[in-house]
Each structure stands twice: as structure tokens, then as C-alpha cells.
Amino acid sequence: MSVIIKSITHADGGNNYRLNAMKYCLDERCILKKGYGVDIIDPEVAAMHFHNVDAFWNNEHKNPFIQYIISFDKETVSTPEEAMRLTREIMEPITKEHLALSAVHRDERSDSMYHSHTYVGATNFHNGSMLYSDNKTNYEMAQRTADVTGRSAKLVVDYGKDKQWECKKVFVPAENEDDE
């Protein structure tokens, strides 16, 4: 089994979507949570933080989020703390310029026990540029997932309306230069 990173590219509904996403992320299934410039206690305040950055840069009517779901196999992660540590490390390059909220949920299946949701604000808070869930971004995130976890990573992109694409490429950890 490998680690699966799923990119959800669709986000319809404006402020209602922002609030619904925050409520979902922070609901009773949430074991651990980490905010990057957003409140982690009150979903309404978190949604407002995302909206305010979008509005400041005149991006409020554009896609507000990219959602990443990372499912960790049991060999990679056995505790919620480890799931959050890896999620933080995987998302670190994006969270330097984008608001984000990460939450770990427990969902025991035959091959995994924990997964994380990270809602990344599409608006760069430094300059207002937009982050898109395109192949470049998704491939970079899948490769980073493999590098950070030390395990192969599978990329799945969810376009909404029951349209999903599974990348044929398996992302493997890059060789460490120190190993040579």
C-alpha cells in the first residue's frame, strides 16, 4: 500500500462553501487540527479569515480552496500525531504564502487508520496571486508526499460531479544525496 493524496479541485458555493468546509474539517471526527493564519476553534471565524484574504485581493468570487486529503497506510502512520506531523511537513511550502487549515480524522479501514484534510486558501496572502489545482501543483504535492513519508504516493484528482482521475504515475521518494 502507498500513501494516497487526493486533490479536490471543485469548490462551489461561495461563503456557504467556506463555512461548510470549515464545519466539516472541525467537526466531531477531528482528532487534531492546525491552523495557518486561521482560527481552529470556530468554523465561522475560520471561514471569515479565508473570505477576508480573498476579498482584500478581489478574489472572493474565485475558487476559495484546494482541498488535499492524505490517506496514510498503517505502515506509515500509527498515531494521529504522526499523521499531523507528516501533513504539516508535506504542506509546509504552501502554508508559507496561503492560509490553510489541517485536521486529522480517524477512519479505520483495512489498509489505513488516519487521514488528513487540508483546506488551502487559493489566494496568496502576500500578493493576491492564485494557486490552482493543476497538474504542476498536484504533481509537486504528490512528489512532496512521497519524499516526506519515504513511501510511494498515488495521486487522485477529484473534479466533482463524480468525475475523478487517478494518475498513472506512481511518485517515489527522491534519492537522498547523502546516501551516495
Please specify the SSE layout and strand pairing.
Elements: E1 3-8, H1 14-25, E2 30-36, H2 43-56, E3 65-73, H3 80-95, E4 98-106, E5 112-124, H4 135-149, E6 153-160, E7 163-171
Parallel strand pairs: 1-6
Antiparallel strand pairs: 1-3, 2-4, 3-5, 4-5, 6-7
How far do the termini sit from each other?
27 Å
Mean pLDDT across every amino acid position: 91
Element-by-element helix/strand order = EHEHEHEEHEE
- Judged by helices, strands and strand pairing, the structural class is alpha+beta
Q: What low-confidence regions span 5 or more consecutive residues with pLDDT below 50?
A: none
How many helices? 4
For the report, how would you describe the main beta sheet?
Answer: 7 strands, mixed
Bin the helical content: 25-40%
Residue share in β-strands = 25-35%
How many strand units? 7
- The order of strands across the largest sheet is 2-4-5-3-1-6-7
Labels describing this entry:
180 residues; alpha+beta; single chain; globular; seven-stranded mixed beta sheet; 32% helix
Summarize it.
The chain is of the alpha+beta class.
Structure report:
By secondary structure, the protein is an alpha+beta fold. It is 32% helix and 34% strand. Strands 2-4-5-3-1-6-7 form a seven-stranded mixed beta sheet, sandwiched between helices. A hairpin with a 5-residue loop joins strand 4 and strand 5 (112-124). The longest helix is centred in the middle third of the chain and has 16 residues, at 80-95. The chain is globular, with a radius of gyration of 16 Å. The mean pLDDT is 91.
